[in-house]
Write a structure and sequence with these properties.
Blueprint lengths: L10 E6 L8 H15 L3 E6 L8 H8 L6 E3 H6 L10 H7 L4 E5 L2 E7 L2 E7 L7 E8 L2 E9 L2 E11 L2 E11 L2 E7 L7 E4 L2 E3 L2 H11 L7 E4 L6 H8 L5 E5 L5 E7 L2 E4 L1 H8 L6 E4 L2 H11 L6 E3 L18 E5 L8 H9 L2 H4 L2 E5 L5 H10 L6 E5 L12 E4 L8 H8 L3 E5 L4 H5 L8 E2 L10 H16 L4 H9 L3 H13 L1
Parallel strand pairs: 1-2, 1-14, 2-3, 14-15, 15-18, 18-19, 20-21, 20-23, 21-22, 23-24, 24-25
Antiparallel strand pairs: 4-5, 5-6, 6-7, 7-8, 8-9, 9-10, 10-11, 11-12, 12-13, 16-17
Helix pairs in contact: 5-6, 9-14
Length: 501
């Protein structure tokens, strides 16, 4: 059972929405923060609001280094319980569905009553050998999903066919086999809830009830990592309980084309917080460049906008000697990363100098990139390596290339310089300017004025910085010098100074 009545002198609550197997930079930023604050023996809790199906929120947090004992899940707090990993085995399911025909589907089990009526048992993504959810299909239509904590049912989802696609319309959460919370899916309008006999028209309204159950005091701190559906509830409570409110800016916070004499067009994710800046004690950015811009735009002092790197290095890795022919980039395969630009540019110089590029990551652009590599005839020079654990990988390369048009910080860039890699790419706020000293540890290229990342001028210019990264006599020792300021001890010191203020 989660003891939400336990009080500590200071507790830091970190607010997020969801977490999955392929976590975003925000979740990894939280994992780094967790480790840094743990070094300072600060009590901290990580709040997640979204439902997850692949495993429990607690296991997913453990998977990235956040101890499950420090995780508060929205649904569990409201129900006064804690969901545990499923302990349902194949033997258990065979006993329940003894009249069904068993068929194996990969690591999952299919129990068939008829061809069109069956139950699919899904193996827990992080708890191999155990099955955490059952899907009931009738006449080829998904009608229900059941989720299990140990061997007990804790949630049922109900579906109806809409245009031949199963559409979720209700979740029912149980406590001791009794229905305590019902969630009604409203599509683009979001969910509404029935909780203990009271109707809540939005998740944000029910989140206010959740916050009340935390019994926050004036000595506590709330850090908002994701504010969609959470900010208004947190800000409203702040007007009644003077806890310290911190907003972390994880991405570009404004639209450059939206800066006019009439004002600034903010990133939607930060608009509410900026318009209500009087309630925020501190905004935290990952780089001093972004902090300085934000201070000027919001007309705030250095005490209100702080710079704390979103990640850190446990140690510096690799050595000075590298194969200068080998390049790497690590990225989601998505259009804003402009990997097609990188591939086109690399094709212009790779055969001339026998240069090789490995692209690590997965995403929706994979098939497009595969086709492009074949079309350009560079399959021997450019490889898609997929999603891998990169421990020990970076130091096998000489230069990291970044074609992204924007990085709030760039954890992969940090890992690259921590392994002694030169960094070259677009001069896009805020990653590459932070991790590249022009002409010393890499080369930077201005973003295209017309937003055309595939123009011949841009491709030729990008190819030029790739070639210079290979040919120039850069100083790898300077890379390590830059990286040393991001060692864990330095970042922990930032947090300590911030908490001591």
């Amino acid at each position: 059972m989660i003891d939400i009545e336990m009080r500590f002198k200071v507790v830091i609550y970190n607010v997020n929405l969801g977490i999955g197997l392929a976590s975003s930079g925000v979740e990894y930023a939280q994992a780094y923060r967790y480790s840094a604050l743990k070094s300072l023996e600060v009590e901290q809790k990580y709040i997640f609001l979204d439902f997850t199906s692949v495993s429990t929120v607690y296991q997913l947090c453990d998977n990235i280094g956040i101890d499950s004992k420090d995780v508060l899940w929205f649904y569990d707090i409201l129900l006064g319980r804690q969901t545990h990993p499923s302990s349902l085995t194949e033997t258990d399911l065979k006993h329940v569905f003894s009249n069904y025909e068993l068929e194996r589907v990969g690591s999952n089990l299919k129990f068939k009553l008829l061809d069109q009526t069956y139950v699919l048992a899904y193996e827990d993504a992080l708890n191999k050998g155990f099955y955490n959810r059952l899907e009931y299909v009738h006449n080829y239509c998904l009608v229900r999903k059941d989720y299990y904590s140990e061997k007990s049912l804790y949630c049922s989802e109900y579906y109806t066919p809409v245009n031949n696609i199963a559409k979720l319309y209700k979740r029912v959460f149980y406590q001791n086999s009794l229905s305590v919370l019902e969630e009604y899916e409203g599509g683009s309008l979001g969910s509404s809830f029935l909780y203990k006999g009271v109707y809540y028209p939005s998740k944000e309204k029910l989140f206010r009830v959740f916050l009340e159950q935390l019994n926050l005091t004036s000595e506590d701190m709330v850090i908002l990592d994701r504010s969609t559906g959470t900010a208004k509830a947190v800000f409203e409570l702040k007007t009644r309980v003077p806890f310290k409110l911190v907003v972390v800016v994880h991405a570009e916070h404004f639209v450059h084309e939206g800066v006019t004499e009439q004002g600034i067009l903010w990133n939607n994710y930060y608009d509410y917080q900026f318009r209500n800046k009087q309630f925020v004690d501190t905004f935290i950015c990952s780089t001093e460049l972004q902090s300085s811009i934000l201070r000027e735009q919001l007309q705030l002092g250095s005490d209100k906008v702080k710079t704390i790197p979103v990640g850190f290095l446990e140690s510096l890795k690799g050595g000075l000697e590298r194969d200068r022919h080998k390049f790497i980039t690590v990225s989601r395969l998505s259009d804003e990363k402009h990997l097609d630009t990188l591939v086109h540019a690399f094709a212009k110089v790779c055969k001339q100098h026998d240069l090789y590029l490995d692209i690590y990551g997965e995403g929706g652009e994979r098939s497009k990139l595969e086709s492009l590599i074949i079309e350009l005839g560079i399959s021997d020079y450019v490889k898609l390596r997929g999603h891998q654990t990169l421990e020990g990988i970076y130091e096998n390369y000489s230069t990291y290339l970044c074609a992204s048009s924007g990085e709030g910080f760039g954890l992969s860039l940090l890992e690259a310089v921590g392994s002694g890699l030169y960094v070259s790419g677009f001069k896009a706020n805020y990653g590459t300017p932070t991790f590249t000293k022009e002409g010393i540890t890499g080369f930077l290229l201005d973003l295209p004025n017309d937003n055309n990342y595939l123009s011949e001028d841009i491709l030729v210019s990008f190819a030029d910085i790739i070639e210079r990264s290979y040919l120039a006599d850069l100083d790898r020792a300077k890379v390590y010098e830059l990286a040393s300021s991001y060692l864990k001890g330095s970042v922990v010191k930032y947090w300590k100074e911030f908490l001591d203020d």
